[in-house]
Amino acid sequence: MTDHLTVNLLSKPVYDITYNDSFNELSKFLSGFNASDKKALVISDSKVASLYLDAILNVMEPCCKYVTSYVFPAGESSKTLDTVRNCYEKLILEKFDRHDFIVALGGGVTGDMAGYTAATYLRGIDFIQVPTSLLADVDSSIGGKTGVDFDAYKNMVGAFHMPKLVYINRETFKTLDKDQFYSGMGEVVKSALIRDAELFELLEANKDDLFSVDRDVLMEIVYRCNLVKKAVVEEDPEEKGLRAILNFGHTIGHALEKYMEFKLLHGECVSIGCIMASYISMKKGLISRDDLDRIIAVISRFELPKLPADIDIKNIIALTKNDKKMVGNTVKFILLRSIGDGFITKEVSDEDMMDSIEFYLKEIN
After folding, report:
1. Which is it for strands 4-9 and 341-345: parallel, antiparallel or unpaired?
2. pLDDT, tens digit, for every residue of 174-187?
């Protein structure tokens, strides 16, 4: 793998994804970004800030005109317009203008929310993604989708706003706890199943606890997922067609998140949704039972949480109708032709989803 990937828009370079061993190399980008004439707001959650805020401020302060920070309580419950409002207030009181920028330091919640703040403050200012979770490394920090939850509706308010840089620091792998690691693996296996059969084989080959893989293997996993996301985003930057393929496992997954009142992690729900979508693919004769068993074998190593025995299947299916992926009254669903070959369809019925949930509860849960 190289030390960076360049993401293009209309065949023109827009930003780099860089792979680093510390935060120190960020100073080189900031120098080329004319940060000495700019103010910077670092947005982070309380957990990540306790680990990395001081380190990144120490790198940024000599490079920027002025640096400040805003820290919000960790968790999906903070991913709201109220938190964005607090960020706006901070920017206004600190007199940030359109030449200044935001740094998102954290996981998917931070990246989505800080990106949305950047997209909407003064009709758009620059921002940098510094992901610190596996989920953000492999998926949410890349592609320019930003947003917040609205009541029980996940990512219902948002905007497309490309970052100036995605800065991945492999040192942050050290502080991944097992729950967050396996949540990120939900997005990893999604990437493998829709576009990278060799990545799926890499996951199969590491038969020991995936949480224990060394950092070089983990960086290879991140890099391969980034290649998948880059290719899809470049072809469809605003999700008007192909990019919806990245939602494999998310239709029922998002509904589960809502049903469980966000008590389960996003990636956990995606992993469960991937098994259900794979089951539907098998029932429609698209993949074999052997392929389904291989998928279940890999995902089952992610220590998935148990779903309630009395789960309301009809309610979960009803919640899929509130998803932003709806087209009229039809759910855009992602299925598999084979491992590594996902596609978009509107031919998944409520009965198909019900069967897949019942299968999961009976055979996996």
Report:
1. unpaired
2. 999 999 999 999 99
